[in-house]
Amino acid sequence: MLRSRRALLYVPGDNLHMVEKAAALGADCVCLDIEDGVAFNRKADARATIAGVLPRLNFGRSERLVRINPVGSGLELEDLNAVLPAHPDGFVIPKVHSAEQVQWVSARLAEAEKTYGWPSGEIILIALIESARGVVNLKEIAGSDPRLQALVFGAEDLAGDIGAVRTRPGWEIFYARSAIVTYAAAFGLQAIDMVWMDLHDLDGLRAESQQGAQMAYSGKQVIHPNQVEPVHAAFAPSDEAIAQAKRVVDAAAQQQEAGKGAFALDGKMVDMPVVKAAEWVLARARAAGKLE
Ligand code: COA
Ligand code: MG
């Protein structure tokens, strides 16, 4: 079954107070950061804090992820070596622009799984796409490795990379936002949407989350505890949407038996694409624990 990845909450890995707080929030994913949320002179502290905290802290049902520094930064091997013995559930690789970067991390995970006798392939990978090259190479990245489960869209870094000015409507990054969710779908991956940076504007967060969900994103990156609940709500289908999806699926099954592919329900045409969309709603409801 699809793992629910609605809110992916970043926590600076060197901040023990925030890490402890994040573990208790019930976010679908908690991402302990060693990359851009951590100052250069604190990378070693972040590695040590994460390695120390993972084995002792109860994260409930949250997926325990670690964001390492980019492959090619010179920091990535030390990040992995420090954190791997504590066995996180997966790694987020930032600034991915080639398949080789994902495959390099995957090979290190394979070695660790062998060394520690863990089931092979159990540590998962998530790739952040946040550069022009990353967007242009989406096809090879999305198909790079069986551990890869999701693509994440980094809008702020992308804007910085190409020299775009970030605006609220976001047309300057809209091609990338659409491309990422489309390539993810083509390769059976989940897609996790951009960060809403305005900590105090929860209505703006809700609107952008809803837009991401409508685009078929499975979730959104978040940076503050207050953002978790609105994002969880936006990326789980509403009770009404679930009820309507059930009606569509049930009616379609009956009509198929009667030999009809297309039919009318409440004055609107229903055919295969509509049924598929309804099945997606039910799959997301199951992943979010709203449906058996
Ligand atoms: N995870 C866990 N706890 C967090 C948190 C996070 N991402 N962000 C804030 N908190 C905690 C604070 O420690 C504080 O706890 P306390 O009341 O027990 O002291 C509480 O939530 C309220 O925080 P608040 O005062 O509103 O925010 P702040 O000024 O302390 O922090 C940021 C604001 C932006 C610095 C902080 O939210 C943050 O570091 N977010 C993550 C940034 C990041 O990782 N960026 C890189 C990825 S894009
Ligand atoms: Mg980034």
Shape: globular
Low-confidence stretches: none
**Heterogens:** coenzyme A, magnesium ion
Second-tier CATH architecture of the largest domain: Alpha-Beta Barrel
Describe this entry's structure for a reader.
Helix content is 45%, strand content 16%. By secondary structure, it is an alpha/beta fold. The chain folds into 2 domains: 7-234, Alpha-Beta Barrel (TIM Barrel), CATH 3.20.20; 239-287, no CATH class. Helix 2 (43-53) runs parallel beside helix 3, helix 9 runs parallel beside helix 10 (228-235) and helix 11 (239-257) crosses helix 12. The mean pLDDT is 97. It binds coenzyme A (COA) and magnesium ion (MG). Coenzyme A (COA) binds at residues 9-12, 17-18, 21-22, 33, 36-37, 195, 223-225.
